[in-house]
Specification:
- The protein is of the alpha+beta class and 231 residues long.
């Protein structure tokens, strides 16, 4: 869990320097008649692959910090309304098509997943503020005497209702910038005319099929920096 909290802080998931006292911020927003959203962060700890024998290398604890999308309110404590940026991951038919294409002579199929996918994208729409658990308050907040602090959420953290939509927009823009084209009418499916690679994306899972010699170059393209993904 400590590793997860530190990772999210390091990439700037929320802005602790922008901390505000909740009551003061709400008064300002009501006076301006400006809508903002408020939600809490909480941690989850699970034992991954718990069905495996004890001592197995793939059996381990995994921590996650998520946004509580089930209870989000605006400055008037009304239920928050979202943009409903529904994501459209690849279908089962698309996956089977990729498998078939990968079975052609001289072709292959490979899979990979995006690292901490959602937090690669920024959260747009109405500004969102988060409450951190009391034991995760920075020392500066405690020394300043905050009673109920909130800080701006910057990245598309897991749990936010619109995070999947912003990740998909971010991902598609990056994929298209690398020479892939959309495969209409299937969503989240792309083809690279030069490399002859078929790519499908299911949330943060990538499946690529095509000429074996082209797959290495295809993955390198997706992992290469761009204006959208400078790192």
């Amino acid at each position: 869990l400590r590793k997860e909290w530190n990772r999210l802080r390091d990439i700037g998931t929320w802005n602790e320097a922008g901390v505000r006292e909740y009551d003061d911020l709400v008064k300002e927003l009501r006076a301006k008649k400006e809508d903002n959203h408020f939600g809490r962060l909480f941690a989850i700890l699970v034992e991954k692959n718990s069905e495996l024998p004890k001592g197995h290398k793939d059996r381990k604890y995994k921590g996650r910090v998520v946004f509580d999308g089930s209870y989000v309110r605006d400055q008037n404590k009304e239920v928050a309304l979202f943009q409903e940026l529904s994501s459209s991951p690849a279908t089962m038919q698309a996956s089977k098509a990729a498998d078939t294409y990968g079975l052609f002579e001289g072709h292959d199929i490979e899979q990979a997943d995006a690292k901490q996918a959602y937090t690669q994208s920024k959260l747009g729409g109405i500004p969102t503020w988060v409450f951190l658990p009391r034991d995760e308050w920075p020392d500066e907040w405690i020394e300043a005497g905050y009673r109920n602090p909130v800080c701006p959420l910057i990245l598309s953290l897991y749990g936010h209702p619109d995070s999947g939509g912003y990740w998909e927009q971010h991902c598609e823009t990056h994929v298209l910038s690398k020479g892939f084209t959309k495969c209409s009418p299937w969503r989240s499916c792309y083809f690279h005319p030069k490399l002859k690679i078929f790519l499908i994306i299911y949330v943060d899972d990538f499946k690529m099929s095509g000429p074996t010699d082209s797959l290495v170059e295809g993955w390198a393209l997706l992992q290469a920096p761009s204006e959208l993904c400078p790192k």
